[in-house]
Amino acid sequence: MSVRKGGRNSGYGLYLIPGVLASLAVIVVPLVMTVGVSFTKWNGVGDPKWIGFDNYTRLFHDDLFWASFGHILLLIVAMAVIPTFVGLVLAAVLFDYVAKVLGDRWAKLFRSAYYLPQVLPVAVTGIIWVWILHPSFGALNQILDTVGLGSLSRDWLGDPKYALFSVMGVMIWFQFGYPIVMFMSGLQRVDPELYEAADLDGAGWWQRFRHITVKMIRPELYVVLVTTTIAALKIFGQVFVLTGGGPSNATIVPSYFAYKNFFEKAQVGYGSAISTVLTVMIIVLAIIFLRLQNRSRV
Amino acid sequence: MSVIAAPSQTDSTVEPPAATAKKHRRPGRWVVLAVLLALLLLVVAPMLVIMVNAFKTPSDYASNGPLALPESISFQGIIDFWNRIDFSRKLLNSLVTSLSVAVLGVLLSVLNAYALGIGRVRGRIWFLVFFLVANLLPQEVLVYPLYYISKELHLYDSPISVIIIFTVIQSAFGTYLLTSVYEEFPRELLDAAEVDGAGRWRTLWRVVVPVSRPTLAVLFTFFFIWTWNEFFLPLIFLVSNENQTVPVALGVLQGDRLMDATATSASALVGILPALLFFLIFQRTLTRGITAGAIK
Fold first, then answer.
1. Nearest Cβ partner of B138 from A100, A219, A278?
2. Is the confidence at residue A2, as pLDDT, over 80?
């Protein structure tokens, strides 16, 4: 038996060493490098040239930069707000209604099916939807034609007026199963007797939803809101495969904007400045979320 | 979060389950069910369309359109596509990468969360903030230096670089989540292990890991699927044909002139199938719930 020195919590620090070292190499050092490069003019070879805040002032006057952040706001609605709300209601309905009336199996079946789009590779999602939304041979326009709504058919991804909304639609489809899975697993913590007690007190479904369901899964609610909002800010793959940021930059997002500067235009300094701004935004948002979460715990 | 004690005085008056269920039998039931089914159809319709068309011949597609059932089942599109991009190779690449990341990522998360959630090491809040922020960082802010460093280390265009990077990125999420689970780990179990003379290392493997296995299984599942589906970093790091993962191979094929509608469907189908397979296999772990490790 080993003799333990110090308090009950000593000796745990060792377990953090691998995580800290790995994080230094993969996260901290590259992060610091990117921030550093954002103050330089650099094409990826040779020595970066220090130019101070020039990249940032350039960003500030770049319409494309503002447009890309505007698009992100709409994508947050499509990827975080709507899926969280829909997911919350659906999780509650599945847990507390379908599972009771039709049986647990059905609730699980629905949940799995809704989660399905999440497991598809982004590239496959892209292939499917580009084809479904194709103006001439896409399935959506053909369906519209078949049911006599041909006048509604559009060049869904190719028309700058609709492209972003089409991407939003695809993202809702892609995203809303994730909150359902998270919320339903959180609901497993809820003591059934709590619901029965509420039933006895004559509480309606909505009351139980608000006072028991939402309250009990608050930890999951925060996790889902944080992760989906951040996912929206970081979105790249879907835009890459659906529209490539086009048509005429109608769907450009910050990460794609940065990618283009890094790897297509070889403007590494400028790309770094874009990434840095995006990162600062995300961290600020995270701090706000964390504050809210801590406050609700007290 | 607080564990709410069940009001035990209601025990005697609780209705039997059958009576509770009866209360819900209202006409509203069918509306709810219809909405759920309509949603279900919306979700799976795109996949059904893909399946229908992947088995068509190009001429069948040309004459009957995308919504008709195939005249005869043809595997030609799938076979052609499979051979054209050497799909077996991409599958293997994806499998090795995702599996390695899932295992290593869970391991790293457990070690971190053990120190932070159970050990409550000093400065744990700052570590947690770091892991949260790390998890939230856009990959764009890391990509260029990682690209540069991996070239210097001759790890560019190698699965190893991708595995290392994703292990760290995924475990940032895992640490954050698992720590909150471990914070509520029953102290009795830890104390019992201590009484039995188990050290930190043994307690971790004999008590903490087995008890939190459901949560670890969920993490493993998420890590695997997320890594399998990752696109941005593999797109940049795995440039040569032989190293590409499935999503990268499919993504760069898009817009290829050789891809007609049936070939597109076939490629989507072979992209879906592995994901679907893992999903079915992992489904059981998902049902156990992400916070199942927090024992009541």
1. A278
2. no
Residue B257 is predicted with a pLDDT of: 56
Q: Half-sphere exposure of A11 toward its Cβ, with a 13 Å CA cutoff?
A: 12
Token pair, residue B270, equals: 């072979």
List, for residues A127-170, the tens digit of each pLDDT value.
888 888 888 777 788 888 888 887 888 888 888 889 999 999 99
Average pLDDT, chain A: 86
Whether B17 is in a domain gets the answer no
B106, B200: one domain: yes
Residues A277-295: pLDDT tens digits?
Answer: 999 998 888 888 878 877 7
Which B residues 179-238 touch A at CB under 8 Å?
Answer: 180, 197, 199-200, 204, 218, 225, 228-229, 231-232, 235-236
| Segments forming the whole domain that contains residue B36 | 24-79
Asked if residue B229 is part of any domain, the answer here is: yes
Q: How many domains does chain B have?
A: 2
Q: Which of B24, B43, B141 sits opposite A100 (nearest CB)?
A: B24
A110 contact residues in B (CB cutoff 8 A) = 36, 40
Cα–Cα distance between A185 and A295 in angstroms, integer?
23
Among residues A242, A245, A266, A263, the alpha carbon closest in space to that of A254 is found at A245
Give the chain B residue nearest A294 (alpha carbons): B1
Complex-level ipTM: 0.79
3-state secondary structure at position A40: strand
Interface probe, candidates B137, B146, B219, B287, chain A, greatest A C-beta count within 10 A: B137
Instruction: Please indicate if any CB of chain A lies within 8 Å of the CB of B132.
Output: yes
Look-up: residue for tokens 């600062």? A280
d(CA A132, CA A139): 5
The answer to whether A262 and B138 are in contact (CB under 8 A) is: no
Pick from A131-145, B6-20, B133-147, B202-216: least confident: B6-20
3-state secondary structure of A49: strand
Whether residue B107 sits in one domain with residue B32 = no
Query: Which pLDDT score is estimated for B255?
Result: 60
Tokens at residue B11, please? 């025990």
The domain defined by A76-251 carries CATH number 3.30.365.10:
no
pLDDT digits (tens, 9 = 90+) for A67-109: 998 999 999 999 999 999 999 999 988 887 788 778 888 888 8
Q: Which two tokens stand for residue A88?
A: 């919350």
- The verdict on a CB contact (< 8 Å) between A126 and B246 is no
Do residues B192 and B262 share a domain?
yes
Count CA atoms closer than 13 A to B289's CA, side-chain side. 18
Nearest to A194 among B6, B180, B271 (CB): B6
Amino acid letter for position A140: L
Cα distance between residue B56 and residue B63, in whole Å: 11
Residue B63 to residues A255, B54, B70, B264, Cα–Cα distance (Å) = 41, 15, 11, 17
Q: In whole angstroms, what is the distance from residue B157 CA to residue B159 CA?
A: 7
E-only strand ranges, chain A:
40-41, 49-50
Report pLDDT digits (tens) over A30-64: 999 999 999 999 988 888 899 999 999 999 999 99
Percent of chain A with pLDDT over 70: 96
Residues B123 and B233 in one domain: yes
A257: pLDDT confidence band, cut at 50, 70 and 90?
very high
